[in-house]
Amino acid sequence: MESLSGMTTADTHCPYCALQCAMRLSAGDPVTVSGRDFVVNGGGLCQKGWTSAELLAHPDRLTAPLVRQAGVLRRATWDEALDRVVAGVRDVQRAHGRDAVAVFGGGGLTNEKAYALGRFARVALRTATIDYNGRFCMSSAAAAGNRAFGADRGLPFPVTDIRDAGAVLLVGANPAETMPPFLRHLPGERLITVDPRVTATARHGALHLQPTPGTDLALANGLLHLAITEGLVDEAYVAARTTGFDEVRRTVAQWWPARVERLTGVPIADLLATVHRLAAADTAMVLTARGAEQHATGTDTVTAFVNLALALGLPGRPGSGYGCLTGQGNGQGGREHGQKADQLPGYRRLDDPAARAHVAAVWGVDPDDLPGPGPSAYELLTAEKMRALLVFGSNPVVSAPRAAGVERRLAGLDLLVVTDFVLSETAALADVVLPAAQWAEEDGTMTNLEGRVIRRTRLRPPPPGVRTDLEILAALSGRLGAPVSARPREVFDELRRASAGGTADYAGITYERITAEGGVFWPCPAEDHPGTPRMFLERFATPDGRARFVAVDHRGPAEQPCADYPLYLTTGRVLTQYQSGAQTRRIAGLPGRAFVELHPDLAGRLGIADGDDVAVSTRRGSATAPARLSTAIRPDTVFMPFHWGGAARANTLTNPALDPVSRMPEFKVCAARVALA
Ligand code: SF4
């Protein structure tokens, strides 16, 4: 129902993670949130979702643009702020070339915004320097999926297929904390988890493998070795639907069980139980997430688990498969529509002449004028040639690896522009801060972890002085001589045309269909096409229709423990916080503070008691937080959540060693030492 100032209720989805739980917002002071029945969440929400409306009227909310003057941010008019951005961009490009201006996006932006941002960079700025924080999230799984299946959709099947699977191998994911309603799809008695910590999800499952950090690839190759020697390979499937198994068979032959046990610490009996449970089930799933992916070997690690799934005949079989649990709210759609360094809308390659011609025609530009691929996220954020940066929907000062170096680099730019709705750690460094609308104040679409395109519906307009990201991009584009629409529906219709014929084809998806059908799965090439809940049933998206085995072998982490740094450090998430914490740390209903988790045996050796302030140090710096003693972690490993900035910033410590394919940094393992602070 609509009032003069907006709707009295709005059926929408959560502003946070990729599960995209359905919720109803009710106007009032405060706005109230209730869970809404939807297949992924069944009406349930986690603490983050329930409290998400608190930020709409938070005292930290920005309600006017800010510009830096004499070192201090002061309020400004929109005209002054936008003019300063455009003048700064022009100055930098005149002096240093187009690519000296960079754009950094986010996996929480709607499809419309992700699309508009890519177009803004390549048409209005004509810069090749654009990437986004999804590079830090699921890029290794995307790269592995593309090389095995010819397409990357996080889950190429609905979540309900997981609920019905006879066995699920879940690698490096803790949905009990990151997306609790997802557990309704993970029956514990059929769940096998892989994690160096005994997480809430591991406790929920029937079998937990607790490998040494950085050994997942060897673990996967060891599991495949056992599948072969135990006679569990689906030879008919391998022959009919795949290529390349012989070389993989040769590679994993060297990963005999005792060797795997010695390297990973996982008992042979558990390795055997895992492959037998997966092979014995009528339907089975192999799922990966950040724990497997955020490594300098992330693409190969995921590939090793894909190889295991292929050998067992799972991908493309109804009720079975391989999938990646995407993390950010629009981690899926955000990587499909052009804010990624190497891609154009529709998941097209930027270096493909046919793709360039198609998208250039939609944009009304010459294909030769489109820039080529640019640097990946970490390389972009630290590039010496970058002199100006425009950030949308991201807080890299907290979320990037070796964050102190990134912070220094951003502080030294000629121009830093940040669009956000609070003064995040990155915005606090900016020369210009543009206040953006929140999710309840705009329309748009998101694509959840299943590839299901859903509607985000506006409850009310933004507060006076605040604009939507699309309005900001349109205003900047107009000033730069490349006018575009700021209306979500018009942007989406253009996105549909730009994506038509691509891997992520949205041509047949309309706002009306999404509302009427409760979401539409891509690819959906025409309005009379039903969408594609399950991919690869007949053929994979490779030229010959077959999935590709790729032989990969274990390489250790970029850093191993040594005399100076004798421990492994791993990082991750906790129940009450989301990503860099810029939003959730401000919500009173989401308590929590940074901590360092370590085993009591290790703490005893170091004279550390529960609650003591401890300093964790790596070759990149130190971070300090209270100790939390727990037997859930291995005695050779410490864990820090990465949601906090300042002295407790875990990413001060992390290693920016990059995966050679996905350019994913190695967030999940580095060498560290711990001492009383
Ligand atoms: Fe929001 Fe994710 Fe929590 Fe659902 S699980 S309420 S989408 S944060």
From TrEMBL:
Any Pfam family hit: Molybdopterin
Domain of life the protein comes from: Bacteria
Swiss-Prot/TrEMBL keywords: 4Fe-4S, Iron, Iron-sulfur, Metal-binding
One of the protein's GO biological processes: respiratory electron transport chain
Gene3D superfamilies noted in UniProt: 2.40.40.20, 3.40.50.740, ADC-like domains, Dimethylsulfoxide Reductase, domain 2
Transmembrane segments: none
InterPro entries (alphabetical): Asp_de-COase-like_dom_sf (IPR009010), MoPterin_dinucl-bd_dom (IPR006657), Mopterin_OxRdtase (IPR006656), Mopterin_OxRdtase_4Fe-4S_dom (IPR006963), Prok_molybdopt-oxidoreductase (IPR050123)
Domain (4Fe-4S Mo/W bis-MGD-type): residue spans on this chain: 7-58
GO molecular function, one term: metal ion binding
Gene Ontology cellular component terms for the protein in this record: membrane
Keyword Chloroplast: no
PANTHER family membership: NADH-QUINONE OXIDOREDUCTASE SUBUNIT G (PTHR43105:SF10), RESPIRATORY NITRATE REDUCTASE (PTHR43105)
Protein name: Molybdopterin oxidoreductase
Organism: Spirilliplanes yamanashiensis
